[in-house]
Design goal:
Helix content: 10-25%
Strand content: over 45%
Structural class: mainly beta
CATH architecture: Beta Barrel
Largest sheet: 8 strands, antiparallel, barrel
Number of domains: 1
CATH topology: Porin
Order of helices and strands: HEEEEEHEEEEE
Oligomer: single chain
CATH class: Mainly Beta
Number of strands: 10
Length: 170
């Protein structure tokens, strides 16, 4: 626990603090990897393994996409909307990494209602992942981790969401 008056390592008053140098070097490296080309415009497919899901991704700018998910898993139905910032790698054509915020709503049946005393779960999400568009095929593959925090129902942090998506690009 941080007590009043104490400082974290990055709060040092010295501008040449080693942690600040590392953070600036990391930011410069990530910017150097980014390019402006987007490998596809929109895609629709399936997502596993948390449940059986449908995913739709639509780029709204060169580096920004909206992703919508609908997942059915063990007596629950969960929908999520994500705003993703994509950063392509210059050395790997078609490969990007992405990060972004989102929201979710889930509905429960039977056992989940008893466990969480709720029929609905509402919260915020984050996403971090890799996205690959095959050059010769209209196929997109992504792998991501989607931690979330629910305010109702199964309230608190959950780290088990995310998975592998296989989409048709059109």
């Amino acid at each position: 626990m941080i007590q009043s008056g104490s400082k974290l390592a990055f709060e040092d008053d010295h501008p040449n603090h080693p942690l600040m140098k590392v953070l600036l070097a990391l930011a410069a490296f990530m910017l150097a990897l980014a390019v402006t080309a987007q490998p596809y415009n929109r895609a629709l497919g399936v997502k596993f393994p948390v449940g059986t899901g449908i995913t739709y991704k639509k780029f709204i700018s060169e580096k920004s996409a909206l992703e919508f998910q609908a997942v059915y898993a063990r007596e629950s139905f969960r929908t999520a909307g994500l705003y993703e910032f994509h950063f392509p790698f210059t050395k790997a054509e078609g490969l990007t990494w992405y990060v972004g915020p989102g929201v979710h709503v889930a509905f429960y049946k039977s056992e989940y209602q008893k466990t969480y005393s709720s029929k609905m779960d509402l919260g915020i999400d984050g996403v971090l992942g890799l996205d690959y568009k095959f050059a010769a095929l209209p196929i997109n593959l992504s792998l991501d981790w989607q931690p979330s925090f629910s305010f109702t129902g199964n309230s608190g942090a959950q780290a088990a969401y995310g998975g592998v998506a296989l989409r048709y690009v059109f």
